[in-house]
Amino acid sequence: MHKLVVLYPKPADPDHFRDYYVTNHLPLVMKMPGLLAWRYSFDVAAAEGEAPYFAVFEADFADAAAMAASRESPQGQRAAADVANYATGGVVVIHYPVQDGTG
């Protein structure tokens, strides 16, 4: 599995961010091809001190190629272009292959 993580620093208007994200942005994300699962939170906390991020989004893809194809698709391009409409604090996008562990 390959994971895409989007980290959002605090926006200028948190209420607008929340409303726009749920009402407009997530419906675009859900149309991205190859998306296996997704999750998000506005309740980001740090173990110590103040969290550097306001919100986080995670998406699962079968592999890096599936993620790249999804991001390059028309649906992925629309979702990426939409970020400027709510993320006034910027955005950090990271991705990585997931290593399963057993305890």
UniProtKB/TrEMBL annotation:
Residues forming the EthD domain are 11-88
InterPro entries assigned: Dimeric_a/b-barrel, EthD_dom
Name the UniProt record assigns to this protein: EthD family reductase
Q: Which Gene3D superfamilies match?
A: 3.30.70.100
Q: Which NCBIfam families match?
A: EthD family reductase (TIGR02118)
Task: List the lineage, top down.
Answer: Bacteria, Bacillati, Actinomycetota, Actinomycetes, Kitasatosporales
The UniProt entry's coiled-coil ranges are none
The signal peptide stretch is none
